From TrEMBL:
It comes from Hymenobacter nitidus. This is Phosphoribosylanthranilate isomerase.
Length: 208
């Protein structure tokens, strides 16, 4: 179904999530393929899950693996992008066989000019930035204004926690990020999954 923004769903680890999110219009599904990440998946499982979905871009999440190891997994699993947790040098990023997104942590007390520099220094080497989690205390009016400006300048995928206390749709219409980040979950048992939370957000993002 058409959505008003791009949707990236992180941490896919079961067929229920993969098929549901693809069917609801998500553009990207991420799989944690790096053994140093919690809940990482074996390449064979990623191949199996991705074989059941169509029309989505596959992303592997990586932290400590070397560039050659990442490239090998990208080929094995048919990845379209990689999501890098750890910052890599421009030389390393240039060796990747698929484009990279960069996972960015929100640092509440970071100066606005330092945040801008962080984006500016990396933007030429990555396809965009993923800020999955907002600070627990939420954003101030000034931080919201700065984030909106950054979303106009850089390709930002933002977690739904950045919207609080607004509805996600209103946040997307006001801030206009490149996309929204959702989180996959666990099956209650094989083939059984509660999609209530995801469904609520997908419904808000449907084109009217």
């Amino acid at each position: 179904m058409p959505l008003i923004t791009s949707v990236l769903v992180r941490g896919i680890n079961n067929l229920s999530d993969a098929r549901y999110c693809a069917g609801m219009g998500a553009d990207y599904l991420t799989f944690r393929l790096d053994p140093s990440l919690p809940g990482h998946l074996e390449p064979a499982l990623v191949q199996e899950l991705s074989g059941w979905v169509a029309g989505v871009q596959l992303i592997g999440e990586f932290d400590s693996l070397s560039i050659p190891e990442i490239n090998a997994l990208a080929t094995t699993c048919g990845l379209h992008y990689v999501l890098m947790h750890r910052r890599r040098t421009p030389e390393e990023l240039a060796q990747l066989t698929v484009p990279a997104l960069k996972l960015i942590k929100w640092i509440p007390d970071m100066l606005a000019e330092d945040v801008e520099k962080r984006f500016r220094d990396q933007q030429a080497h990555v396809a965009g930035f993923v800020l999955a989690h907002a600070p627990d205390e939420g954003l101030s009016a000034m931080q919201r204004a700065q984030l909106t400006q950054q979303a106009r300048t850089y390709k930002l995928w933002l977690g739904t926690s950045f919207a609080a206390p607004q509805p996600v749709r209103q946040f997307v219409e006001e801030v206009q990020p490149t996309g929204i980040v959702l989180e996959g979950g666990q099956e209650i048992k094989p083939g059984l999954r509660d999609f209530t939370e995801l469904e609520t957000i997908f419904e808000q993002l449907e084109e009217e």
